[in-house]
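Continuing the series of single-chain predictions for the mutant panel. This is the parent chain; the variants come on the following pages.
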Amino acid sequence: MISKVAVIGAGTMGNGIAHLFALHGFTVNLVDVDSSKTRQAVDTIAANLERQVAKGTITAEQKKNTLNLIAPTTELTTGISGVDLIIEAATENEDIKKSIFRQLDQQAAASCILATNTSSISIASLAAVTGRPSRVIGMHFMNPVPVMKLVEVIRGRHTDPEVTDEIVSLSRKMDKIPCVVNDYPGFIANRILMPMLNESITALQDGVAGVREIDTIMKLGMAHPMGPLQLADFIGLDVCLAILNVLHEGLGKPHYIAAPLLVTMVQAGELGKKSGKGFYLYGAGLNELTVNPRFEGGDNT
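Parent structure:
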């Protein structure tokens, strides 16, 4: 039975996963090589919990107990000692993830399940660098983790069915809805989502319509809660580009070739909400849906 968890990576997804598990009574070690990131992650979790208290969805006592269950650390060996499940939530880069999985395999208990929060990278490729491919699985959480119901559970070629069942059961215990899929590039969520985001960027690039118009059409016409360009900003344009590259490399279809505008924006450091600038501008004193002036006046290149 899983009772103690380690989360590797204290970024947006990592802190959200730690928040979720601790809120549901699991002891969580939050591991990152950068101590400033673990401190920032705990501050973010505390602020998000306080919002839940203000909304009445949890009590002040639950907030206190949740924070007490999270132990930040920069030491991998300490962080994964005695845990039943490790969830890797590092950047969406296959080489980085493989390096982490090699270390986890060497240092974690033989019974420990190794999960990855990857949104596109092959589970089999990560499992192959370990000596326990039957205990490697994907747990693709959606952002923001405490709010979004879906967990895309990805079984690798050699994942033990009992491991899959255990992760499905665990997801349900945390009030999530798990959907089990097989190990193909992009799985289901991003195999379908990324071409839509990419085509929206191409339409903007071609001057078919503006940022606000594209997002409004998809929200009002297709009942999407968020427009595709705003969603791309929210995910991170660098993450979108990385996923499209994985999809194109793995599936070879032309509709996965990233729009030149997306590539240029990432090269320029315009990564969306996390950098303060993407298709919209973000920051203190700005309306969240302030269109980037770069796209005003028809200059969409």
